[in-house]
Amino acid sequence: MNVFTGLRVLDLSRVLAGPYCTALLADRGADVVKVEPPGGDDARRLGPFRDGESVYFAQLNRGERSIVLDLKKADVLVENFRPGVTRRLGIDHAALGAANPASGLREHLRFRSDGPDARVPRLRPDRAGDVRAHGGDRHTGSAGRRPGSDW
After folding, report:
1. pLDDT recorded at residue 151
2. Using one digit for the tens of pLDDT, what is the confidence trace for 2-21?
3. Is the peptide bond before 125 cis (omega within 30 degrees of 0)?
4. What's the CATH code, domain 1-69?
5. Where in the chain are the domains?
6. Residue 70: exposed, middle, or buried by beta-carbon count in 10 A (0-12, 13-18, 19+)?
């Protein structure tokens, strides 16, 4: 049964739980694109091997296409992960700036991982006005509303 035909999935997971989930989605028709770092997913190095390929990796990533993406070579990175995620992935501001000093990478102080609002949930509807105001989108008010107020 291909209930997920037409669904495109971007797989940033690795090793077991995420790849198993996306394999099940691919089994049911989803178009899964796995993004791997240079050198590949760690699971590619886990045995047993058949014809030089990891059986473990092949089973958990069946039905997926893979691409290699070196995020450290980015000139611009737009992300909205929770605090600490970019550091764990090795793509935080310091790591990217060191890997590509000419990139001119910048972070928005208020909402970056160590900024004053780092721990404030960003997906709450009551915060949308704040995020847009800090981004410059809500600089004027309208009749009956102050600048930056919610809708």
Report:
1. 44
2. 899 999 898 888 888 889 99
3. no
4. 3.40.50.10540
5. 1-69, 72-138
6. exposed
